[in-house]
Amino acid sequence: MKEQYINPVLVNIKFYKSGKKMNDETYFALLERARSKIPKKVFEHSRFKIPPLRIFTEGNKTSILNFKEIADVLNRDPNHIMKFFLRELATRGNFEGTRATFIGRFGQLTLKSLMKRYTNKYVLCPFCNKPETRIIKEDKFLYLQCLSCGAKESIKAI
Ligand SMILES: [Zn+2]
User: Fold this and answer.
1) Are 11 and 30 in contact (CB under 8 A)?
2) Average pLDDT of 13-39?
């Protein structure tokens, strides 16, 4: 079933075209009405949150202890995320059990922003911003396919 989205701005323009002037009260009433007709699902993506990274540093190694948990939430293969991290951090490391370990000392901010970048590139739909997507391979090319809006966007291999 296709979702119906009523754009409050369009409602507004229509109203003006009819030649009548609109007072604030009418405008807000219309806005409220339009808003109430937007399915709640449209707002759901804003609730999507990457779990906080549990970071552990020892000597010259940095681990993300809950790497597997995060991969599960993002619905991605931990090894795929790992590949991205290793390339971006320009280091070596491994994923084992539930944790990912990298050679070198990396701070919370660096790792957090990397996870965010991965999510924006390889998880969230660029059109509707929802996380219900999957990576598919067609003729040697990779695509991010959205299960919510049906969009298919080509993505770069890591
Ligand atoms: Zn989408």
Assistant:
1) yes
2) 64
- Span 70-110, pLDDT tens digits: 999 999 999 999 999 999 999 999 999 999 999 999 999 99
| 125, 149 contact by CB (below 8 A) | yes
Cα distance between residue 104 and residue 97, in whole Å: 20
Q: Name the one residue in this structure whose structure tokens are 């597997």.
A: 68
The arrangement of secondary structure in 55-155, i.e. its CATH architecture, is 2-Layer Sandwich (3.30)
Per the confidence metrics, is the pTM higher than 0.90? no
Closest CA to 85 of 119, 134, 59: 119
Check residue 1 and give its pLDDT. Answer: 46
CB within 5 A of ion ligand 1: which residues? 125, 127-128, 146, 148-149, 151
Ligand 1 centroid to Cα of residue 72, in Å, is 20
**Nearest Cα to 106, choosing from 37, 71, 56, 49?**
56
Can you give the residue ranges of every domain in the chain? 8-39, 55-155
| CA of 34 relative to ligand 1 center, distance in Å | 22
